[in-house]
Design goal:
Helix content: 25-40%
Structural class: alpha/beta
CATH class of the largest domain: Alpha Beta
Shape: flat
CATH architecture of the largest domain: 3-Layer(aba) Sandwich
Number of helices: 28
Distance between the termini: 17 Å
Number of strands: 39
Largest sheet: 8 strands, mixed
Strand content: 15-25%
Number of domains: 5
Radius of gyration: 32 Å
Strand order of the largest sheet: 1-2-3-4-5-6-8-7
Length: 884
């Protein structure tokens, strides 16, 4: 939710404005805004002349935000250029809305932007409808409301139209919001990646200086725009005109590249902003955590500048119309179709060198460094509209807004492969937690869930990354995970088959027609089953014919051709001759020095990628098959409609609850609000209450101790099963009270359930990533086996299905291997969807454990549940805002 702290947001034309809620001190600015409206705008706003009590109205509009009132202002530098506000009606879920925009700022999206923020504020206070009146002739305002993406209706006919705006955002609203942000972001990034003019501040004559290297790279790259240098001690450097300051240049540059000492950076940004510079790339390091760094951020906010860095190696765009290399990387940035964004300058340099050796180039590269503003999210939006980018590569050490990242990456991955290097995967990052679910939710698990759901191909090393880029550059995606292996050496085929199995690929049985055709081509010593062993005495022509046969088999989605050269020739040469097809073919050339290199066609173009080891080829095909599967089954991120959910009762249950673990009865009631099946539960503080619970439930019962700090009840002797009479119940509770002393909270009494498979379902809340839904084996197997899967909420039906079938043990529990003992996947999936909805609607739920969730062939039920809540500040991760 927006507060009174201003955030920077990009408008449709790329201009950056600041948005915040108004406060009483803004009343005079509100008056000035309305008095500055021209006669026509004033008429449309007030249905006539401005009211005589404008000052009083302004004070009311600028009042502090609360349950019944809120106002959002848009500021260009320090000047208020727009206001949107609402006042609640007698119905606490409804409010009247109005807005005004300065004529100089109209048609740039200011009104829509303010409404997006006002809607977020209103929803956080429980308002679900905004109402008001608009003159029929005010077509621009009607356009603002209808284009917002929320359900909107207006009364027909008459000069004045009453309208209702429903504040129930769905996919149309999020899609419209994302599209507005994408268009605005791309417009602002043009000054970074396609600037009409560039100035290097801190350019130097000294060859060893960064300012010299950057200026030389811009020159050597053949930059197409106007280039200037800024240095008070020179009039020209490398033949480039030089001035003492940005203000003294012949014209104001669109982009400045700052290469001065850290202490001088704030003044460089301020002077650039005063001159109207649109963007800055700050190469300089040593700013973060200092007063100078804070001044740079404030200056960028004030002047509406986009900012790359600081502490970065720069930006590059190899498009022929720009040819910008504003970096200090060695050598020429090779032109190509791979977009790169890297938080690590060293990684960016290493990747460029690897791609250069491979013969693959980049479309654009941005080194984000300390990431004050421009981040991976910005580049995901840029690449979606950039026809020159076909593959996106990310190196991210942190996520500023991971939930927005997931949405943007998903949109890009729908049409272009997105690859990322995993970072921070070690168990050193494991956080302390008091439930099995939260203990399972390490940062690496959460990050991997984010990547998987967004369709991102995640790898662990630069070598794996380059391997995948090579295949994606020269081969199509496979139609499935079924791979045929053909080799002229039996051992090579076995190695490739083993590598395929490790990478989640299947080696299908070849069709009868395929094996017959192979048998006709090969000698009697050859093996025509998969993997195919042609034997060493085979020519390249025959090897190529075998490839044609395998590719024609409908049971084959991809082929790995692994071979060693013999005196008869190199069979892999046959792969060079293959025409482009719809199925990928990867080569393995034992003995080649490079881990991966292009296998060139007779025409001198890469025919495919050749790998030195079958493990590399198989791993790549595994990634490509998973990505292709994601693309085939991806759908809108829409949570299904679930009956039997009462969110209002659930919210009331948690209202003003202190942080900590909820009592068992509240947990049971909360689960009931979401239709999550659980056994009847009674809570007993002492022996008498336990005996009464036994009488109500009937025997036999399960009795479970509730003890402060105890997670594993059974491991600490806190569970008694099959207790069949009242005296036994009393004895169990009495014994526990004496044993646990001051830590004793009470006992849960439940009827015994029939035995079944014990599972785990739960939530691990994260204020940055959002809630993570965890599913796995439960009961005593929870920690012993540690077989779990995780996905970020909200879950779709497809997500729930992937969770259920994402365990190592899933084939034995839910697949054909289970036979008559197969568990009810529909019931388990329904529980996971309901747990996800609980997490989505109740952000204060920090941890939830359903363990065990007992499943049978005809249903499932939670036998034990724990929920911990903690205060959470409402946050809308999808609102448009810059990091600065």
């Amino acid at each position: 939710m927006i507060t009174d702290r201003a955030v920077s947001v990009v408008l449709a034309d790329g201009e950056v404005v600041r948005i915040r809620t108004l406060r009483p001190a803004d009343a005079d600015d509100v008056v000035a805004l309305h008095r500055g409206l021209d006669d026509h705008d004033r008429y449309l706003r007030f249905f006539g002349a401005a009211p005589s009590g404008l000052e009083g109205l302004a004070r009311k509009m600028a009042a502090e935000t609360g349950v019944r009132h809120a106002a959002v202002g848009a500021f260009r530098r320090d000047r208020l250029i727009g206001v949107a506000h609402y006042e609640a009606t007698t119905d606490p879920t409804e409010a009247e809305v109005a807005l005004a925009v300065d004529s100089s700022a109209q048609a740039h999206g200011v009104g829509t932007l303010m409404l997006e923020y006002l809607v977020s504020v209103a929803r956080s206070y429980g308002i679900r409808r905004l109402t008001g009146q608009v003159l029929a002739e005010n077509t621009r305002m009607f356009g603002v409301f209808t284009d917002l993406g929320l359900p909107f209706r207006a009364t027909p006919g008459g000069p004045e139209r009453e309208f209702v705006l429903s504040l129930e955002p769905g996919e149309p609203y999020w899609d419209a919001l994302n599209e507005r942000e994408r268009e605005a972001d791309i417009a602002s990034l043009r000054a970074v990646l396609r600037p009409a003019s560039v100035a290097v501040i801190g350019a130097s004559r000294r060859p060893g200086a960064v300012g010299h290297a950057v200026l030389k790279n811009v020159l050597d790259g053949g930059y197409s725009g106007d280039l200037f240098a800024v240095n008070p001690a020179a009039t020209e450097i490398l033949g480039v005109p030089c001035a003492p300051s940005v203000a003294e240049l012949p014209s104001c540059p669109e982009l400045v590249v700052v290469c001065v000492p850290a202490a001088a950076v704030p003044d460089a940004i301020i002077h650039s902003g005063e001159c109207g510079v649109r963007a800055a790339v700050v190469i300089s390091a040593g700013l973060t955590g200092t007063d100078a760094g804070e001044r740079v951020i404030e200056a960028a906010r004030k002047y509406g500048m986009r900012l790359v860095g600081p502490n970065c190696v720069g930006v590059a765009n190899t498009d022929g119309a720009t040819r910008l290399n504003a970096t200090f990387v060695p050598g020429v940035v090779p032109a190509g179709a791979v977009g790169v964004v890297s938080q690590s300058g060293g990684f960016g340099i290493a990747l460029l060198e690897s791609l250069r050796q491979l013969g693959v180039g980049v479309s654009s590269m941005v080194s984000t460094g300390d990431k004050y503003d421009v981040s991976g999210n910005d580049l995901l939006m840029w690449w979606q509209r950039d026809p020159g980018t076909e593959i996106a590569v990310l190196y991210l050490e942190s996520f500023g807004n991971p939930r927005k990242f997931g949405r943007l990456a998903r949109a890009l991955a729908a049409t272009k492969p997105v690859l990322a290097i995993r970072t921070g995967s070690t168990e050193v990052a494991r956080r302390a937690a008091a439930s099995h679910t939260a203990a399972a939710a390490t940062p690496a698990v959460t990050r991997d869930a984010l990547y998987e759901q967004a369709g991102v191909i995640a790898v662990d090393t630069v070598t794996e990354l380059v391997d995948a880029i090579a295949a994606l550059s020269w081969q199509p995606l496979p139609g499935g995970n079924r791979v045929a292996v053909v080799s002229n050496a039996g051992g090579a085929g076995v190695l490739a088959a083993d590598a395929c199995a490790r990478s989640g690929l299947a080696l299908p049985e070849l069709g009868a027609d395929t094996t017959a055709r192979l048998r006709a081509l090969l000698s009697g010593q050859a093996s025509v089953s998969n993997p195919v062993d042609t034997t060493a005495a085979v020519s390249a022509e025959v090897f190529g014919a075998c490839l044609d046969v395998l590719l024609a088999d409908d049971a084959v989605d991809a082929v790995i051709a692994a071979a060693v050269p013999t005196a008869l020739g190199d069979p892999v040469d046959a792969v060079r001759e293959l025409p482009a097809g719809t199925k990928p073919v990867l080569a393995v050339r034992f003995g080649q020095l490079a881990h991966v290199e292009p296998l060139m066609s007779p025409a001198g173009r890469p025919a495919t990628a050749a790998y030195a080891d079958p493990a590399g080829a198989a791993a790549v095909l595994g990634h490509l098959a998973s990505y292709a599967e994601w693309r085939r089954h991806r759908g809108p991120v829409v949570a299904p409609d679930l009956p039997g959910i009462d969110p209002q009762r659930a919210i009331a249950l948690l209202r003003e609850r202190p942080a900590g673990w909820l009592d068992p009865l509240t947990v049971t009631e909360l689960l009931d609000c979401f239709g999550i099946p659980s056994v009847p539960t009674r809570f007993a503080a002492d022996e008498d209450a336990a005996a009464k619970a036994f009488a109500e439930l009937g025997g036999p019962v399960a009795v479970k101790a509730t003890v402060e700090g105890m997670v594993h009840k059974s491991a600490h002797g806190g569970v008694a099963l099959g207790v069949s009479d009242e005296n036994a119940v009393r004895d169990v509770v009495r014994r526990w009270r004496n044993r646990f002393g001051a830590a004793w909270k009470g006992a849960v009494v439940q009827p015994m359930s029939p035995p079944g498979r014990e599972l785990l379902a739960g939530i691990a809340g994260d204020e940055v990533f959002g809630p993570l839904v965890v599913f796995g084996l439960g009961g005593v197997d929870t920690d012993l086996v540690a077989d779990r899967a995780a996905r970020l909420a909200p879950l779709t039906e497809r997500d729930a299905e992937l969770l259920v079938h994402g365990l190592r043990s899933s084939p034995g529990l839910f697949g054909d291997d289970a036979g008559s003992g197969r568990l009810d996947t529909a019931a388990i999936g329904d529980v996971l969807l309901r747990v996800s909805r609980l997490a989505e609607l109740l952000p204060e739920v920090a941890e939830l454990d359903l363990n065990p969730l007992v499943a049978w062939s005809d249903g499932c039920v939670a036998l034990d549940a724990r929920i911990r809540v903690e205060p959470r500040t409402p946050n809308d991760p999808f609102l448009r805002r810059l990091r600065t």
